[in-house]
Amino acid sequence: MAVTVADVLRVWHQPGRPVLETLVEALSERSLLLVLDNCEHVVGACAKLADALLLGCPELALLATSREPLGVDGEQVFRVPPLAVPAEGQDTVAVRASEAVRLFEDRAAATAVTLTWNEQAANVAGRICRRLDGIPLAIELAAARLRMMSAAEVEARLDQRFAILTGGSRTALPRQHTLQAMVDWSWELLTGAERAVLARLSVFAGGFGLAAAEAVAANRDVDAGEVLGHLGALVDKSLVQFGDIGAGPSRYRLLETVRQYAADRLDGLGPAVAESARTAHRDYYLTLAETAAPRLMGPGKAEWLDRLDSDLGNVRTAIAFSLIRPDLKPGMLLASSFRTYWAVRGHAAEGAAVLRQLLDAPGAKEPTLLRAKALAAAADLLDRTRDYEVAEEYCREGLAIADAAGDDQLVADLLFERSWLLVRQGRTGAALPLVEQALGLIDESADLYLTARLLTARSYAAYAEGDFASAARDATEALRFSRQAGDQSQVSQVLGNLGGYELSAGDLEAARRHLAEALAIARAFNARDVIVHQAHNLGLAEYLSGSLPDAERLFAESLDLSNRLGMKGTRPYSLLGLAMTGLGQSDPGWSARLHGAADQALADLGETVEPMEAQLAELDRQRLRAEMGADNFETEYAVGRTLDPAQALAAPSATDGTTGQAPPADRPDGDGADADVAKLTRRELDVLKLVAQGLSNAEIAQRLVLSEHTVHRHLSNILRKLGLSARGAPPPGARESAWCGPGLIGPFLPASRIWPVRAKRHCGVLAYLLGRIAVRRIGPRDSRSPTWQLPSREPRSAATEVKMQYQRKTLAFKKNFPPRESSRGGTSRSRSRAARFSASPRSDWPR
Question: What is the pTM of this model?
Fold first, then answer.
């Protein structure tokens, strides 16, 4: 190495003297930057050279590139990261601006391929760069393939990336001709032990911790205590990525390209070696799940949920491996132990599907306690996905096994699951004896969590029977046990139930207080299934209190999350809430259609609307019939029953949004600007109105139940259709004075709603367009007025009317049924079904 450097720097060799000594002397007084490139294949020689030069040449600076540090004194290591890739869901502009996609576009252009940049094409380019981990060579090779296949075809073949990513520059080094050659080069630089460790690490999906690496990578040739040293070497050689997350445990991961390569190498070592690595991986996460299960019902729940979040991909991989093994018991135990996680994090459908697959396998039919526990877990999750018939079947089978084995704890758990299934289906008379039987089997002080759940079931059953005093008493007791157990997510669920009882009793302030606390706890825990229910219930309380904007925001949040989690049972109620609040204020036909879609969604589930929502929905429908006409309402309602929820939210109504009649073909506008507005879709007009009110993209997305990306796309389309370069640019022919002033918006919205600071950036194009919208869609000109008039409607009149009727019924109830002394010394109420206001909480409230 010293000879090579001396030759490059033209330092003459002195006979009988070491070249390195001569080189140091020659450079000792020179101010020089010396670059050593690609040191990894001669790292030892480079390290010796660097050490000697740095010690003997004080004015010399040395820059070395290598796949691992040289390891000399004074070395400053800078790890060159992969190119930045766009995040999933980013818009076209952000995708195209990312480093990786810019390289992809540049290399495609070098091969005479011009990429299109619509939304679909940008998403494909972003996915290619993400799947290639931002590795420059891989991206260049993928771009070269665009000469013979489309970007979508390249993406579809990335699972065989080593076969298709070939054909690099002929002038490049051989190892840069193909992706395979590049990784082969790195592999050949590893020691035998490092290769064995890297191959076994390929079984991980996503990140992993040091303890997991030691458990999985240890093998016949590498002890667990030696894994850390080899792992550090792999990090130094950039084959394993290390992420320092502060106070938390260290996390490692493999780039997907490296993982696929190492997995092929693992399979090449033989079936026995590959199976031992995957078995060790499964067993590690089985132990983790068993350790976590009891802690997910106590004070440490939040920390354990977060920890399991980071290892969810590994758990899925371990379960998938278990499903193809003859012995299904480890997989059944792993999936059962994940029961609480599946439920709380909104993965009930996934967990139920996995457990059903395990339970229905021929090799898992033996009536063991493990099978009974898996049946209980599956019944719990199937209840949440509305598959009541299979859940009841599992409960009956599990009870028979647990009872025969004398496991009272498991019997009580299964009795709870069955009782709750009966409550869900309105069979409260049959449910209450099961709850009492279960409470008699357990020690309340020893099993606080199950006791709280049983009391919750009994409280709801009592509520459904009209015994509100017993319902509130049991809910309060369940809350006490939940707090003692330290399970904050269970506290959230019980608070939600208690708030629902108060809501039905007319105590809106107490209901709002308890429901707000329940939702705050659920959000803190990221308990997504609970958030869905509590957001809806709090939205209902806000609606009854007359707070339409808050109610609408909560209903939209509930709907968005239930859609993402596949919680079909909650969607109809969120749709009803949105129909009754702000989404339909500018278009009663839209509200009518949402009513129809909600009723059809309930019918598809074989359910009927809950009494409270039924009462409120009927009042809102009466308002809509009066506003748009009975025939028009029925037309839109019938259309809504033919649409799925997404279509009902997105599609325009068949009638005019303000009069219930088809919009006239011609309506004078004074300057012929109708053509501008005609270019915009109904949803683009809706986005435009909300921007004019000063809402941000995120707020518009929440209001219209859209993603921020979709809102951005609508705004881009508005500008494009009108030939504008920016939001603030006036359209051709517009007078500047009219363009920026609030007067042009006056016919549509009060000026005070247009001029908040954050809305000023929108004022140009919006003032112009909203003036045109007012002319086109608001209604006929009032002959006595020089301006266009909006139809008069108080925005909160519907909620005010509902609230007044609600309060009248509550006051009538209080008059007919005065408080009586309860058995606990306080006061309570009871009332007949005929006398009480028909209001009950959702039967699918979280437990």
Answer: 0.63
